[in-house]
């Protein structure tokens, strides 16, 4: 499978994880990113990266810059045979777990 194919497959995997948790997921036009919508009005901008070489500062900058106003940016990443991990601002994480 090509690198792009693996990336698209991972984007679908991340979207499915959100859906299985009970969230509505909408694809964002022109990108592989998703908008995750909670029943309580929570908006999450979901960015997925599946690559062997982790470029966290670059990926986080992209995720945060592309997040629509009012949405919490969440970067989910994985490398081969690794577990799915997510990166979120500490202030956003505290707000999310305090709901």
Outline of the structure:
The protein is of the alpha+beta class.
Describe the fold and architecture:
This protein is an alpha+beta fold and 99 residues long. It has a single domain, classed as Trna Endonuclease, Chain: A, domain 1 (3-Layer(aba) Sandwich), CATH 3.40.1350. Helix content is 37%, strand content 26%. It contains 3 helices and 5 strands. It has a 5-stranded mixed beta sheet. A hairpin with a 6-residue loop joins β1 (24-27) and β2 (34-37). The chain is globular, with a radius of gyration of 13 Å. The relative contact order is 0.16.
Question: Helical proportion?
Answer: 25-40%
Q: How far from one another are the termini? A: 40 Å
Top-tier CATH class: Alpha Beta
Strand residue content: 25-35%
Global mean pLDDT: 91
Order of helices and strands: HEEEHEEH
- What is the CATH topology? Trna Endonuclease, Chain: A, domain 1
**CATH architecture group name:** 3-Layer(aba) Sandwich
Count of folded domains: 1
Total strands: the figure is 5
Radius of gyration: 13 Å
Low-confidence runs: none
What gross morphology would you assign?
A: globular
Q: What structural class do you assign from the helix and strand content?
A: alpha+beta
What does the main sheet amount to? 5 strands, mixed
């Amino acid at each position: 499978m090509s690198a792009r194919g693996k990336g698209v497959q991972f984007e679908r995997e991340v979207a499915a994880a959100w859906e299985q948790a009970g969230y509505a997921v909408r694809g964002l036009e022109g990108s592989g990113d998703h908008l995750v919508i909670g029943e309580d009005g929570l908006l999450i901008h979901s960015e997925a990266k599946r690559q062997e070489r982790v470029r966290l500062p670059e990926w986080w900058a992209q995720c945060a810059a592309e997040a629509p106003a009012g949405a919490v940016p969440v970067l989910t990443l994985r490398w081969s045979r690794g577990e799915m991990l997510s990166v979120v601002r500490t202030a956003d994480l505290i707000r999310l777990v305090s709901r």
